[in-house]
Amino acid sequence: MSTLTAHFDLPLDGTAPAYARGAVVALLGAWGLRDRDWLDAAMTVLSELVSNAVRHGGGAVVVDVEAYGRQVILSVADGSSVVPRPRRADGTGGLGLTIINAYTTRWYVQSYEGGKRVRAEMPPCPGDGVTAGGTSRTEPA
Amino acid sequence: MSTLTAHFDLPLDGTAPAYARGAVVALLGAWGLRDRDWLDAAMTVLSELVSNAVRHGGGAVVVDVEAYGRQVILSVADGSSVVPRPRRADGTGGLGLTIINAYTTRWYVQSYEGGKRVRAEMPPCPGDGVTAGGTSRTEPA
Amino acid sequence: MNITAHRDGDGTARLTLDGDLDMATAGSLDGHVVRALTGERPRQLVIDAAGLSFCDSSGIHALVRARDTAHRHGASFVVSNTTGITRRTLEITGLLGTLTTVSPRVTG
Amino acid sequence: MNITAHRDGDGTARLTLDGDLDMATAGSLDGHVVRALTGERPRQLVIDAAGLSFCDSSGIHALVRARDTAHRHGASFVVSNTTGITRRTLEITGLLGTLTTVSPRVTG
Ligand SMILES: Nc1ncnc2c1ncn2[C@@H]1O[C@H](COP(=O)(O)OP(=O)(O)O)[C@@H](O)[C@H]1O
Ligand SMILES: Nc1ncnc2c1ncn2[C@@H]1O[C@H](COP(=O)(O)OP(=O)(O)O)[C@@H](O)[C@H]1O
């Protein structure tokens, strides 16, 4: 089973979620993880994590993606040590953690370089694609 | 001046250059580096480096992107310690290093974890966008 | 995200969404909603989500705000043509029915 | 990469490229070139690059091979409508003139 990782910085910016989705969907594609529905769910989770880091976290935002075979963990760190807590949804927010809950098998918070890191474990990606050895010839979108 | 970095694994696959371009163009966009002509040149250099790693390098392919303000270094490591050398172009190859030469300010080879890493320094990206502080509101493509 | 505004003959204001609705683009939807509801006041606001390729909680909150704004302006509201991940996420948050069933204009 | 093949009345085979030409897609161009030159033999092969959004050295080598294959089949060859980064990279490699000027069919 192959382990593949990615690690990158994101500036605190309203466009960070969209660019993060663009980068991570390409990375997961390179890793052979290309199931459309699974990618949609993973991108939704990532978008919630990055949006929360930009909105509530502050400081340096760092994204980590780890794939152990078809098992993927998405992590987003920020500079705040405040632990995310579900809150009642209203017109301005409160649905992010509900969505993360629904699309992940589990998620948890670690302390990370003075701030924290939220780690979200996705259910395994369906299908079988490239591993580190590389076989799939599917063309990128 | 802000320093932003990205680091990711790529499987040995013919689609690796395309996915790498997709990931890195999104990362550079997140970092506020969005000049179309400059991105086109950077993506060409990246594509040559990754294609060479897949074609000639083998082993684990690792991409690093570093931005010091608007100054960017693209690095691609592979498992071969053979140092790339320009060769006369023919119908099957030989233009990659010419292109890398033309679009970079300089490039060089380092030894890296039993293999090597080719580092390519791009000329500074024109314009002024987000830094780690974050201000630009340009929408991703 | 591209938003196109139409006005139908029957007093329906229609906003057609194309692209991703998230933190970066939700504000643009807010603006279009207000513009669609002012001036020639529509009886109904329809948000056509057929071209919506992505929508996270920031997007859903913008849709909820659109509904509230429509009702405040005396217009009925509905999100039409939700598909794929947008529909799944609306289901998960319990807002699919609320947003995709026509909610009547409040006459006061 | 999407490749569309047309056959004009005057004996021109035309391949229209749409997308990125690189390591992953060069082989598909090779295949289209051979198919375009066999069967009803064209007098000319035109590769229309207007929709070509990206082309690295793997792509340029595929264009050079297309030209060689056309000449071997007695067809003239040209790449038309190169723009942006493709044109810049062709210039850098010294192949812009070679590929974008009609190279006559070799009559043997
Ligand atoms: N990265 C974070 N840092 C600090 N607090 C957070 C973070 N993410 C979430 N929270 C807290 O948890 C609450 C619930 O988060 P969420 O369900 O995503 O809703 P929203 O972000 O829309 O308010 C937030 O309102 C916030 O107080
Ligand atoms: N990552 C690499 N590892 C080992 N050798 C390399 C690598 N990159 C390039 N080379 C060598 O340098 C030569 C020239 O590279 P290049 O100009 O890119 O042409 P091409 O890859 O098309 O042959 C290659 O043919 C190869 O022998």
Automatic annotation (TrEMBL), chains A, B:
Keywords: Kinase, Serine/threonine-protein kinase, Transferase. This is Histidine kinase/HSP90-like ATPase domain-containing protein. The keyword Kinase applies. Residues 20-120 form the Histidine kinase/HSP90-like ATPase domain. InterPro entries: Anti-sigma-factor_SerPK, HATPase_C_sf, HATPase_dom. It holds the Pfam family HATPase_c_2. Gene3D superfamilies: Histidine kinase-like ATPase, C-terminal domain. It comes from Paractinoplanes deccanensis. Signal peptide: none annotated. Residues 119-141 are annotated as: Disordered.
From TrEMBL, chains C, D:
Gene3D superfamilies: STAS domain (3.30.750.24). SUPFAM superfamilies: SpoIIaa-like (SSF52091). InterPro entries: Anti-sigma_ant, STAS_dom, STAS_dom_sf. It holds the Pfam family STAS. Residues 10-108 form the STAS domain. Belongs to the anti-sigma-factor antagonist family. This is Anti-sigma factor antagonist. It comes from Paractinoplanes deccanensis. The lineage of its organism: Bacteria, Bacillati, Actinomycetota, Actinomycetes, Micromonosporales.
